Amino acid sequence: MKMKKHEVYIYFNENEKAYNFLSNYLLKEINFVKDIFILVDKCTSIYCLPILFKNIEFLKKSNIVKIKSGESEKNIHTCIEICNYLGKMKGSRKSILINLGGGVITDIGGFVSSIFKRGIRFINIPTTLLAMVDASIGNKTGVNLNSIKNEIGSFYSPEFLIIDVNFLKTLTNDDIISGMSEMFKHGLIADNNFWMDMKNAYKDIKNIMKNQIKLYDLVNKSILIKKKIVDKDPKEIGVRKILNFGHTIGHALESFFLMKKKKISHGEAITMGMIYESWISYKSNGLSIKEYEEIKSVLSTLYSTKKKISDSEIEKLFKIMEYDKKNYKNKIQFSLLKNIGKCSYNCEVSYPLIKESLLN
């Protein structure tokens, strides 16, 4: 039997229309408020849950599922704890899970939704810039295994997304920059004009944070770029792989520092990955030296200090890259730039060239 295509709708909070839609949807779809579960972490329970309650008061009577904050919680054990709680509170296939948080919350919540009772409905309300423009979009769910990023997961669609840019007011500048790394990526792989918009915006990040209309416009454009790519290739068989630009090395760096219990944000790891992979693009995929230097110059300003990688650490990074989901026949495959705004995928890259990029 052919399955019905599951559309994902995105609602921006324009004059509270998104919350009105969410409220009406929940009242129509549920018999009891107790059938609603809201997944939060320590931070979003303090800073974001009150905003949600203010907009939809009856959600105060729903079940709150609270986990600790941080990437370390993104594991199968946390998922089992959440499933146990859902079972204890009589969760059923009629239940709805609202994921209120950043990428960790939307990834975990989406995965739990895909496996509990063989699948329940869920709604993403991303509260970080990174989650708004990346993690909550694309129907990917997952958790880490032995520090390997997203080793366990599924493709499972939310009913819809609620994007409320007002949540960005609760973030630090570092949080905003982490999200901007993925926005820069969207320009690099698919839209030269958006790359230019991001370059101009980042020159004065403080004013962008104050200018809600401009920020809203950038977030909206970034989301639409990713959604357009995902719609063409929902299961990442082909063109969707370009979204992994910067992530082959970036995810390896993130996993490596996670293993060492050293702090590195997703944005910083992916920014480093994009710089290294731009260099590989210049060496092997036709990216001009001028555009490589432009990319390196812009992205290097996102983070003031670059983490150094030693020869011995590079060998460990290779081992992590061997687990990358894009690999084929034991060959490490990259998504590489042809020029700013155009990206290739399934590009085999040799170990010597990868090492050269990391030492460059």
Distance between the termini: 53 Å
- The chain-level mean pLDDT equals 90
Main sheet attributes: strand count, strand direction, barrel closure: 4 strands, parallel
Number of strands: 10
Any overview of this molecule?
The protein is α/β, with parallel strands linked by helices. The protein has helices at residues 17-29, 42-47, 49-55, 76-88, 103-115, 129-135, 173-190, 192-202, 205-210, 212-232, 247-259, 266-284, 289-300, 311-321, 351-359, and strands at residues 9-12, 36-41, 63-67, 96-101, 121-126, 140-145, 148-155, 160-163, 333-339, 342-348. The strands form four sheets. Strands 3-2-4-5 form a four-stranded parallel β-sheet. A two-stranded parallel sheet has the order 1-8. The longest helix is centred in the middle third of the chain and has 21 residues, at 212-232. The chain is globular.
Summarize this structure briefly.
With 360 residues, this protein is of the alpha/beta class.
Label this structure with key terms.
globular; two-stranded parallel ribbon; 4-stranded parallel beta sheet; 10 strands; 360 residues; alpha/beta
Helix/strand layout:
Elements: E1 9-12, H1 17-29, E2 36-41, H2 42-47, H3 49-55, E3 63-67, H4 76-88, E4 96-101, H5 103-115, E5 121-126, H6 129-135, E6 140-145, E7 148-155, E8 160-163, H7 173-190, H8 192-202, H9 205-210, H10 212-232, H11 247-259, H12 266-284, H13 289-300, H14 311-321, E9 333-339, E10 342-348, H15 351-359
Parallel strand pairs: 1-8, 2-3, 2-4, 4-5
Antiparallel strand pairs: 6-7, 9-10
Helix pairs in contact: 4-5, 5-6, 6-7, 6-10, 7-8, 7-10, 7-12, 11-12, 11-14, 12-13, 12-15
